[in-house]
Design brief:
3% strand, two-stranded antiparallel sheet, Na/Glc_symporter_sf, sodium transport, sodium, mainly alpha, 22 helices, Sodium/glucose cotransporter
Length: 602
C-alpha cells in the first residue's frame, strides 16, 4: 500500500473518529458546553488535559527545536513539565473549590469588579490567540506534506474540522475527542521513537538514547558534539543563551503553564475537588511519556539529518542522489537547497543558505538546473571559494519538520510515517479546540452573560458561545496562514503572557486575603502591557537582540512581567482599602483542607 493511501487512511480514520465522538457527545446545555457537565472521570480528564496541553509545539516543534539549539532547549522541557507541578499543587484544587470555571469568572468574583473581569477577558483572549496561531500553523505543515496541498489550504482544512467538533460538541465533545487524540498522538510519537532508538543505538528506549554508544564507539551526545564542531556549529551540549535568559525562560514557561486558561478550565470537568488534584497527577504522567522521549528523538533526528545530507564521508551529496524525503519536503516548501558554488552537491553546515534579510525562502514554480525547487530570495555568492569554505551552508531546514521527517529519513515503514502524520494533526487540533472554546467562553459567559447582559437565557448564551467560536476559528486561521514565527517560538510567547498577566492574579487571589480590586487591576495591566510591548518590539518591531533587557529574550520576559505584576499589585493593595471581610473569610476558607470533599460554590 502506498504511503499516500496509508496517510489518507490514518488521517481520515482519525477525523471520522473525532467527528463521531463530537456527534455522540453533543452539548445540549451551557454546563455541558463549558465544563462537560462536570462528570468526567479523573483518568479520562488526565488524558484530555494532556492532549489539550501537548500541542503542535510539543509534538511537532519541541524535538525540532532541541535538534537545532541543543542544550538551550532544556528550558522548554523543564518549564513545560514543571508548570504542571505548580498547577496541581498551588492552583487547581483551590480554583475548583472556589467554583468559577473560567479565569475571568474567578477574577471578577474574587475581586468583585467588572473592570477586573474585562481585563482578565482581554488577557485570556490575547493568550489564547497567540497560542492557537502555532496550532493552526502545525496543521498546515502536516497537510502540506502529506495531503500534497499548500500550507494555507492545510490551515483551512484544519479550521473546518475544528469548527465541526468544537462548535457542535463544546467541552463535552472536546473532552472525549481529546481522550482519543491523546491515544493517537502518544502512539504516533513513541512508536517511531522506539524504532529510531533501536536503529541507532540498538535498544528500544529513547529515554536513554543520548547516552547510548554508537558503532563508532562514541555516545550520541559526543557524536553530535563532534559533527556540530566539524560543520561550524557550536557544540550540541553547549548553549548560546546566557544563564539568566535560560532561567527566566524556564520560569516563564513554568508559571505560564500554571496560568493557561484552557488548562485551568479542565479541572472543572471532574466531579470533586479531590478529582481535580488527581487529574493533575494523571496529566503529568501522560505528558512525561512524551517529554522524556523528546531529547532522544531530537538527537537521533539531528544525527540522521547531517549524515543523510552530507553523506557517510561528510563531504556532501549530489542533489541527483538525494533520497526521496529531501525532495518531498522541498516540494512541501519546508526545506530548500541553494547551490551556492554551482557544483550540484548539497552541503549542510553552519550559516544561512539564503539571504537572511529577506527571511524564509519564498518558493516559486521554477526548477534549477539540477531539478531543485527554486526560491525568489536565493543568495548567489560570486566570491564563494570552495577551498576556503568547504562547508558553507546550502540547506534551509524548517525546524518544525524534524519530528515529521524523522521516520522518512530513517526509512521506517510507511504505516509509521502515516501514524506520525495522524498524531501531529491530533496534537494540533486538540489544543486548538480547547483554546477556541476558552475564547468563546470568555466572550459569551464572562463578557455577554456576566457583564453586558446578565438577563440572556441559557439558550441565548449557548448561541453566543457558538458564534464566538466561529469568529475565533476564522481569526485563528488567519494567524495560522500568517504566523509570527515557528510553532514552539509562537507558543512560548503565549506562555510568557500568561505568566505575566494571569498567574500572579490567581496566586494572590488564593493565598493573600488582603489583595484587593485595585491591586489586581494594576498588576494585570502592568504585567500584560510590559510583556506584550517587549515581545512586540523585539519580535515584530525590528528590535535588535543586542538591546535585550539584561540579555533576556522575548520568551523569557514574561518572568520580568510577572515580577513587575507582583510588586505593583502588592504596593497598590497596601495603599488602598482592603477587600470586604466576607471576601477575606472566603479566601481563608478556600485553603482549608476539608475542601478535599465535594466542592461548594460561594
Amino acid at each position: 500500500m502506498s504511503l499516500d493511501l496509508l496517510t489518507y487512511l490514518f488521517i481520515g480514520g482519525s477525523f471520522a473518529l473525532y467527528i463521531g465522538i463530537a456527534i455522540w457527545a453533543r452539548a445540549g446545555s451551557t454546563k455541558e458546553f463549558y465544563v462537560a457537565g462536570g462528570g468526567v472521570p479523573p483518568i479520562a480528564n488526565g488524558m484530555a488535559t494532556a492532549a489539550d496541553w501537548m500541542s503542535a509545539a510539543s509534538f511537532i516543534s519541541l524535538a525540532g527545536l532541541i535538534s537545532f539549539v541543543g542544550r538551550d532547549g532544556s528550558a522548554y522541557l523543564m518549564g513545560w513539565t514543571g508548570g504542571y507541578v505548580l498547577l496541581a499543587l498551588l492552583l487547581a484544587p483551590y480554583l475548583r473549590k472556589f467554583g468559577k470555571f473560567t479565569v475571568p469568572d474567578f477574577v471578577g468574583d474574587r475581586y468583585g469588579s467588572s473592570t477586573a473581569r474585562i481585563i482578565a477577558v482581554v488577557c485570556t483572549i490575547v493568550i489564547s490567540f497567540t497560542y492557537v496561531a502555532g496550532q493552526m500553523r502545525g496543521v498546515g505543515i502536516v497537510f502540506s506534506r502529506y495531503l500534497h496541498v499548500d500550507i494555507n489550504t492545510g490551515v483551512i482544512v484544519g479550521m473546518a474540522i475544528v469548527f465541526f467538533y468544537a462548535v457542535l460538541g463544546g467541552m463535552k465533545g472536546i473532552t472525549y475527542t481529546q481522550v482519543a487524540q491523546y491515544c493517537v498522538l502518544i502512539l504516533a510519537f513513541t512508536v517511531p521513537a522506539f524504532f529510531l532508538s533501536a536503529q541507532i543505538t540498538g535498544h528500544f528506549l529513547p529515554q536513554f538514547g543520548l547516552g547510548a554508544t554508537l558503532e563508532s564507539g562514541q555516545s550520541v551526545l559526543a557524536t553530535l558534539d563532534q559533527l556540530s564542531v566539524d560543520l561550524g556549529f557550536s557544540q550540541y551540549t553547549s548553549g548560546k543563551k546566557s544563564t539568566i535568559d535560560i532561567f527566566f525562560l524556564t520560569v516563564a514557561l513554568m508559571c505560564g503553564t500554571a496560568g493557561l486558561p484552557h488548562v485551568i478550565v479542565r479541572f472543572f470537568t471532574v466531579p470533586r475537588v479531590k478529582d481535580a488534584r488527581t487529574t493533575g497527577g494523571y496529566a503529568l504522567i501522560f505528558i512525561a511519556l512524551l517529554y522524556t522521549a523528546v531529547p532522544g528523538v531530537a538527537g537521533f533526528g539531528r544525527v540522521n539529518l547531517i549524515q543523510e545530507v552530507n553523506g557517510p564521508q561528510n563531504t556532501g551529496t549530489a542533489y541527483a542522489e538525494m533520497p526521496s524525503w529531501f525532495k518531498n519536503w522541498e516540494n512541501a516548501g519546508l526545506l530548500a537547497w541553494n547551490d551556492r558554488n554551482g557544483d550540484g552537491i548539497v552541503q549542510y553546515a553552519a550559516g544561512a543558505a539564503f539571504d537572511a534579510k529577506k527571511g524564509k525562502p519564498a518558493f516559486i514554480d521554477e526548477r534549477g538546473e539540477h531539478g531543485q525547487r527554486m526560491t525568489s530570495n536565493a543568495k548567489t555568492d560570486a566570491s564563494f571559494d570552495a577551498a576556503k569554505q568547504p562547508f558553507a551552508n546550502e540547506v534551509y531546514v524548517d525546524r518544525d519538520i524534524m519530528v515529521l521527517a524523522n521516520p522518512e529519513i530513517a526509512q521506517l515503514p510507511g504505516w509509521v510515517i502515516a501514524l506520525v502524520a495522524a498524531g501531529a494533526v491530533a496534537a494540533a487540533l486538540s489544543t486548538a479546540a480547547g483554546l477556541l472554546l476558552v475564547i468563546s467562553t470568555a466572550i459569551s459567559h464572562d463578557l455577554m452573560k456576566k457583564t453586558i447582559n446578565p438577563n440572556i437565557s441559557d439558550k441565548q448564551e449557548l448561541m453566543y458561545a457558538r458564534l464566538a467560536a466561529v469568529v475565533a476559528i476564522c481569526i485563528a486561521g488567519y494567524f495560522g496562514i500568517n504566523p509570527p514565527g515557528f510553532v514552539a517560538q509562537v507558543v512560548a510567547l503565549a506562555f510568557g503572557i500568561a505568566c505575566a498577566s494571569v498567574f500572579p492574579t490567581l496566586m494572590l487571589g488564593i493565598f493573600y486575603k488582603r489583595m484587593n480590586t485595585q491591586g489586581a487591576i494594576a498588576g494585570m495591566l502592568v504585567g500584560l502591557v510590559s510583556t506584550v510591548g517587549y515581545m512586540w518590539y523585539f519580535v515584530f518591531g525590528g528590535g535588535n537582540s543586542a538591546d535585550y533587557f539584561m540579555g533576556i529574550s522575548p520568551g523569557g520576559f514574561g518572568t520580568v512581567g510577572m515580577i513587575l505584576h507582583f510588586i505593583v499589585a502588592l504596593v497598590v493593595a497596601q495603599m488602598t482599602p482592603p477587600p470586604s471581610e466576607e471576601m477575606q473569610r472566603i479566601v481563608e476558607d478556600l485553603r482549608i483542607p476539608r475542601g478535599a470533599g465535594v466542592a461548594h460554590d460561594h
